[in-house]
């Protein structure tokens, strides 16, 4: 855009250069004429000093070469004049000539050096000017084509200059914007914020920003981040306030959507009585929502050390919070823990979420729910169902009791028309049935242990007779237990009347074993008596007792009965099926 010194000198027109040479030649000629006349009139007293002004003028007008040539010519002319007029050149003239030659050279070199310095200064200035102009050009290009809106306003808020983007945002042409004030573009509800920005400039800070709504030409509004900056130092307010307008409508919409989603999430968590939590397993830091700390019975806090939760988490459930040995990228996490709250109540809390690595840090995050009421309801329902089953079983057993009693009455014959003996026998059987029923009723499941059924019948003789009862633990259901108790009662009654229990030296051994080693087959029950029987007879009477133990057919419960009697003992064997006697 600008030219350097050399280019300007080379671009001088020929007339200018000719006039410069004529002026230099005229000064040189005038000086030579003056020197010649001065030498003629003054004589040897004239010096060469009258040439110095001419040398200065020529050095100023011409470059170093012409100035040195003119100096040499003046010295030669001065010496020639003195030689012609006086016939000789004195030593003093030679000294003056040399001095003039040196002075002229110094003057010419000085002007040449000054001229070079001026050229260099001009070149530097021109380079800086070119840089400024390039910077200004880039600024103008960026100003006009920027993705954000730019404008300059004065202290009154008048728009002095705006770019194309601001015009696109607002729908105004640049000429229309130049006739508006910035306040006109701001929504009425946000104009106070603009006033605060302008008031704060130059006082608190040189730059202020705020999110406001701007109005388009068609009256619609959009959100923008408005930044005002002073373009002069020291906070001096002048017509140089720089305005940056960034359209944040999309960002604002996303922000509002996220805020709405957070509100919906909080509402959903609150409605479901859920809480959020996060555990940094590397640092052992637990963070959670207010509802999370409320579930644990702890006061709200931003975060807590994981070790602090050991004070409220049940010791048996504390290992559930330990770090997994298998560190997978993402692992589902679902545990239930018990929490002892400060008031002493135990609460069941479910922690559901996932365990994952994030930025090489292992963490757990998810939701928490208080399951106490649900668990209590489940337990109450289970207890109610269990109670209902027991009541049904008791009712069923009670209903079945009457047919059993009826069968007892029908099966017992009147011995020799002795009603008293008939009554005694019947009452004895009913009492045995009653004892078994009471034993089974005492168990909530309605079942009984085989050992208890045998021990109950032999209990009255434990202190006076040698009796042993042994066998594995076997549980019998209600119906099977009642039938088996009647078999044991019949064996005990028969032993008391005719066998070991009726003899002070008699011995009774009762034992049972599993037919197979795995315990899944039949149970072999043995009743063995040792001692003198009375009366000694191998004849088996066929009556009610024989029907119960299965001598005349199938026993009340079990199968494959065997009865062996001798003068000195008795052995009764019975096999009980696991499916028949219950669990």
Automatic annotation (TrEMBL):
Source superkingdom: Bacteria
PANTHER family for this protein: HISTIDINE KINASE (PTHR41523:SF7), TWO-COMPONENT SYSTEM SENSOR PROTEIN (PTHR41523)
Reaction(s) catalysed by this chain's protein: ATP + protein L-histidine = ADP + protein N-phospho-L-histidine
This protein's UniProt keywords: ATP-binding, Chromophore, Flavoprotein, FMN, Kinase, Nucleotide-binding, Phosphoprotein, Photoreceptor protein, Receptor, Repeat, Sensory transduction, Transferase, Virulence
Protein name: Blue-light-activated histidine kinase
Entries under SUPFAM superfamilies matching the protein: PYP-like sensor domain (PAS domain) (SSF55785)
Organism per entry: Mesorhizobium muleiense
InterPro entries hit by this protein: HATPase_C_sf (IPR036890), PAC (IPR001610), PAS (IPR000014), PAS-assoc_C (IPR000700), PAS-like_dom_sf (IPR035965), PAS_fold_3 (IPR013655), Sig_transdc_His_kinase_HWE (IPR011102)
Lineage of producing organism: Bacteria, Pseudomonadati, Pseudomonadota, Alphaproteobacteria, Hyphomicrobiales
């Amino acid at each position: 855009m600008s030219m350097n010194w050399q280019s300007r000198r080379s671009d001088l027109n020929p007339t200018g250069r000719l006039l410069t040479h004529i002026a230099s030649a005229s000064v040189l000629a005038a000086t030579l004429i003056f020197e010649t006349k001065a030498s003629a009139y003054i004589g040897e007293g004239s010096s060469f000093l009258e040439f110095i002004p001419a040398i200065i003028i020529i050095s100023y007008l011409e470059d170093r070469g012409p100035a040195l040539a003119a100096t040499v010519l003046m010295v030669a002319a001065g010496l020639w004049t003195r030689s012609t007029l006086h016939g000789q050149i004195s030593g003093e003239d030679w000294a003056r000539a040399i001095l003039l030659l040196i002075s002229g050279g110094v003057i010419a070199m000085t002007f040449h050096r000054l001229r070079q310095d001026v050229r260099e200064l001009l070149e530097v200035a021109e380079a800086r000017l070119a840089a400024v102009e390039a910077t200004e050009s880039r600024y103008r290009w960026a100003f006009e084509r920027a993705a954000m809106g730019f404008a300059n306003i004065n202290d009154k808020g008048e728009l002095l200059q705006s770019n194309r983007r601001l015009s696109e945002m607002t729908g105004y042409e640049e000429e229309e914007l130049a006739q508006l004030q910035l306040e006109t573009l701001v929504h009425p509800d946000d104009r106070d914020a603009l006033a605060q920005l302008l008031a704060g400039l130059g006082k608190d800070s040189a730059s202020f920003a705020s999110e406001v709504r701007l109005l388009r030409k068609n009256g619609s509004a959009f959100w923008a981040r408005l930044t005002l900056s002073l373009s002069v130092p020291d906070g001096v307010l002048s017509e140089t306030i720089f305005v940056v307008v960034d359209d944040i409508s999309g960002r604002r919409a996303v922000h509002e959507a996220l805020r709405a989603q957070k509100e919906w999430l909080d509402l959903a968590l609150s409605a479901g009585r859920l809480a959020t939590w996060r555990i940094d397993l590397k640092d052992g830091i637990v963070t959670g929502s207010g509802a999370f700390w409320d579930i644990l019975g702890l006061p709200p806090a931003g975060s807590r050390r994981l070790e602090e939760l050991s004070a409220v988490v049940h010791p048996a459930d504390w290992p559930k919070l330990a770090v997994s040995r298998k560190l997978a990228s993402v692992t589902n996490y679902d545990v239930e823990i018990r929490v002892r709250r400060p008031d002493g109540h135990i609460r069941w809390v479910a922690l559901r979420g996932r365990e994952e690595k994030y930025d090489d840090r292992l963490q757990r995050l998810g939701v928490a729910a208080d399951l106490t009421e649900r668990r209590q309801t489940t337990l109450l329902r289970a207890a109610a169902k269990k109670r209902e089953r027991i009541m049904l079983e008791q009712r069923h057993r009670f209903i079945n009791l009457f047919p059993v009693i009826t069968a007892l009455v029908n099966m017992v014959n009147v011995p020799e028309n002795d009603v008293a003996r008939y009554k005694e026998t019947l009452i004895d059987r009913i009492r045995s049935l009653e004892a078994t029923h009471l034993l089974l009723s005492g168990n909530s499941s309605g079942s009984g242990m085989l050992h208890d059924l045998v021990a109950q019948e032999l209990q009255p003789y434990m202190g006076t007779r040698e009796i042993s009862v042994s066998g594995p633990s076997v549980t019998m259901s209600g119906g099977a237990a009642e039938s088996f108790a009647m078999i044991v009662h019949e064996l005990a009654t028969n032993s008391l009347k005719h066998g070991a229990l009726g003899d002070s030296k008699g011995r009774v051994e009762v034992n049972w074993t599993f037919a197979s080693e795995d315990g899944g087959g039949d149970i072999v029950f043995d009743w063995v008596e040792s001692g003198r029987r009375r009366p000694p007879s191998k004849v088996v009477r066929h009556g009610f007792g024989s029907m119960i133990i299965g001598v005349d057919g199938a026993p009340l419960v079990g199968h494959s009965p065997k009865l062996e009697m001798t003068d000195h003992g008795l052995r009764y064997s019975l096999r009980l099926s696991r499916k028949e006697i219950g669990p």
